[in-house]
């Protein structure tokens, strides 16, 4: 907090105030919508937008990250509740509080051990496939609210089956209301912005107009339902009466008899996805301002925010992508904007809860659908398909798993496939025979370039760390290359791309040295990196190479082995030269 309070100015306060107001206008209907998505009472979403962002403001390192309920976390909560067969709102809320508490504890533990970089193991294609699949699941899950058809299910097929079975119960007015809301929200996005900019209105006025749309649509829909008595006469589902007010501290869930250990895997998944989403958007926006994000401190800040959510009756929270972008675009300069947003949400809970009585669920569903459609990431799929089909396969497998099997199973499938592909790639490294580009000291693949080679001398470059997965293929490549060049007397292994050698690869090298020696062939190493060389020297590998040597450069090695007049660095004698 001290970082952004130093030098705080009146101009900062004005910008933070405006950004806080704009974000609150967007957040209030979103909070209710995401609580509905999670199958929780509406207050669980509003309360998640009060204390958690305040705690983050004091502990976080991003100046613009908007913390609160998010769509993917809400879907994961809903999936967890469905998996445990929970339908009672009171019991569902207790489960959500336990999840928020466990998420907070997990994030705090990871932050304490400075494990922020561990989250990098979630690859971008897997994350893209997960978010795209989750967006499709969310959209399908909201059809029941947009049509009035009673249906349930935590996968797309099961939900569609329920919708098909309940099709005769469709409510025409609900369909009209939801469709009109989605159309209005879409028009209030890019089309309205283009129109207002065409009229040369100030950018901030354009932003306010666009981001006020959800609140305007909610108010208009609520007024129509109340004046037309649509909830009573046409069975339009509404939120209903709520006893809100400000959240009260609650520790009763700590003694609940719910299955804490069974909920832990779901909490870990929510923590992982929430943290990755939060830090990703925070880093992008911070880089634009030349600011820095501390991943480990973010773990602590988000952990505290989730504990705050648990103790105030709220659902798990994270940094929302769309709200954070809105907060940043609105001109937020410090986390005070988030505090102002939380204050305004609190005022709404205190004085505007009467509006929720006739608030139609179809409009909240429309807000969810329009918001999550931005999560559908076709660009990454297209790029991955063009660049690397294996990454595209991981993306599609994750997407397919989330849609067909469920969010947890889908992400687990994607992570497993991504790990297997990583091992496969490591086990199939690029290995090349190289030669010298004429007139230079550069060495390139003989199959790609016109290069000089020498009879009796084999140069091999391995473009991967040496480990258990590829030790065998590397040895096989060298031995096979030797069968094509039976007059070889020296093998130079170029290690310019090798950053690590594990014990399995070390055993392979030691065995290769002995094997080649029995054939009258000497193995040499070149361009070995310092940290790798330090470990090789600790176990005495350079001495076991003798009469082979370790050279600093490949050019130096070739000179020493082909030019009788060249000195032999680091040795009182040189190995036998090869004939050029």
UniProtKB/TrEMBL annotation:
The chain crosses the membrane at residues 20-42, 54-78, 90-110, 122-143, 173-193, 205-227, 263-286, 298-318, 330-352, 359-376, 396-424. Its main location: membrane. This is Sulfate permease. GO terms for biological process: transmembrane transport. CDD domains: STAS_SulP_like_sulfate_transporter. Gene3D superfamilies: STAS domain. Residues 447-561 form the STAS domain. One of its GO terms (cellular component) is membrane. PANTHER family: SULFATE TRANSPORTER (PTHR11814).
């Amino acid at each position: 907090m001290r970082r952004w309070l130093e030098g705080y100015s009146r101009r900062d306060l004005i910008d933070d105030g405006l950004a806080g107001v704009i974000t609150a206008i967007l957040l209030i209907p979103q909070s209710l919508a995401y609580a509905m998505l999670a199958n929780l009472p509406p207050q669980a979403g509003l309360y998640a937008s009060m204390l958690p962002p305040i705690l983050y403001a004091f502990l976080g390192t991003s100046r613009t990250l908007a913390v609160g309920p998010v769509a993917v976390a809400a879907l994961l909560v809903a999936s967890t509740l469905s998996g445990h067969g929970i339908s009672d709102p009171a019991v569902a809320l207790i489960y959500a509080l336990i999840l928020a508490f466990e998420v907070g504890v997990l994030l705090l533990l990871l932050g304490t051990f400075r494990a922020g970089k561990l989250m990098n193991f979630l690859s971008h294609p897997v994350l893209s496939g997960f978010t795209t699949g989750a967006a499709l699941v969310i959209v399908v899950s909201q059809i029941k609210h947009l049509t009035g058809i009673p249906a349930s299910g935590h996968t797309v097929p099961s939900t569609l089956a329920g919708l098909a079975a309940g099709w005769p119960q469709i409510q025409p007015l609900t369909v009209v209301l939801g469709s009109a809301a989605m159309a209005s929200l879409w028009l209030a996005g890019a089309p309205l912005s283009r129109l207002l900019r065409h009229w040369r209105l100030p950018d901030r006025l354009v932003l306010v107009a666009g981001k006020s749309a959800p609140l305007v649509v909610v108010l208009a829909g609520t007024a129509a339902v109340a004046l037309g008595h649509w909830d009573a006469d046409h069975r339009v589902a509404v939120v209903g009466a709520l006893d809100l007010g400000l959240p009260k501290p609650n520790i009763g869930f700590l003694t609940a008899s719910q299955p804490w250990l069974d909920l832990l895997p779901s909490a870990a998944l929510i923590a992982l996805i929430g943290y990755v989403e939060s830090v990703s958007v925070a880093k992008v926006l911070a880089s634009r301002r030349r600011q820095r994000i501390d991943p480990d401190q973010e773990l602590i800040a988000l952990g505290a925010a989730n504990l705050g959510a648990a103790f105030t009756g709220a659902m798990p929270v994270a940094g929302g992508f769309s709200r954070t972008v809105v907060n940043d675009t609105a001109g937020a300069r410090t986390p005070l904007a988030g505090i102002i947003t939380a204050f305004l949400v609190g005022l709404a809970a205190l004085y505007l809860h009467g509006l929720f009585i006739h608030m139609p669920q179809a409009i909240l569903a429309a807000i969810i659908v329009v918001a999550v459609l931005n999560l559908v990431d076709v660009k990454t799929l297209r790029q991955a398909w063009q660049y690397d089909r294996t990454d595209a396969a991981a993306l599609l497998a994750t997407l397919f798993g989330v849609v067909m099997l469920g969010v947890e199973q889908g992400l687990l499938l994607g992570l497993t496939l991504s790990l297997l592909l990583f091992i496969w790639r490591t086990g199939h490294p690029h290995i090349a025979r190289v030669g010298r580009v004429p007139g230079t000291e550069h060495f390139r693949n003989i199959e790609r370039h016109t290069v000089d080679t020498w009879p009796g001398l084999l140069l091999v470059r391995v473009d991967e760390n040496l480990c258990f997965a590829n030790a065998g293929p590397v040895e096989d490549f060298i031995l096979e290359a030797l069968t094509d060049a039976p007059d070889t007397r020296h093998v130079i292994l170029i290690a310019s791309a090798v950053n690590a050698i594990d014990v399995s690869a070390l055993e392979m090298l030691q065995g290769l040295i002995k094997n080649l020696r029995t054939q009258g062939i000497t193995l040499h190493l070149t361009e070995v990196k310092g940290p790798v060389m330090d470990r090789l020297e600790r176990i005495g590998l350079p001495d076991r190479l003798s009469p082979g040597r370790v050279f600093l450069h490949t050019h130096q090695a070739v000179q020493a082995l082909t030019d009788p007049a060249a000195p032999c660095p680091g040795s009182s004698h040189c190995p036998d030269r090869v004939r050029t």
